[in-house]
Amino acid sequence: MNSPKRYEVIVVGAGAAGMTAAISAARQGARIALLEHMDAAGKKLLATGNGKCNFTNRVQGMEPYRGQDPAFVLPALHLFGFEQTLSFFRELGIFAVEKRGGYFYPASGQAVSVRQALLWELKRLGVDCFYGVGIRTIQKQNGWFAFDTKQGPFRSRCCIIATGGKAAKKTGSDGSGIPYLTAFGHRMVDLVPALVPLQGKQSFLKELAGVRADAVLSLFADGQMLFADRGEVQLTEACVSGIPAFQVSRYASYALKAQKSVWVTLDFAPDLSRDALKEYFQMQRSRFADCPLPAAWGGLLNQKLIPVLLKLAGLNEALSLKQVGRRDCERLIAQIKGLRVDLTGTKSFDYAQVSAGGVDTREVDPQTMESRLVSGLYLAGEVLDIDGMCGGYNLQWAWSSGWVAGFQSGSAKGKR
Question: What is the mean pLDDT of residues 229-245?
Answer without folding.
Answer: 97
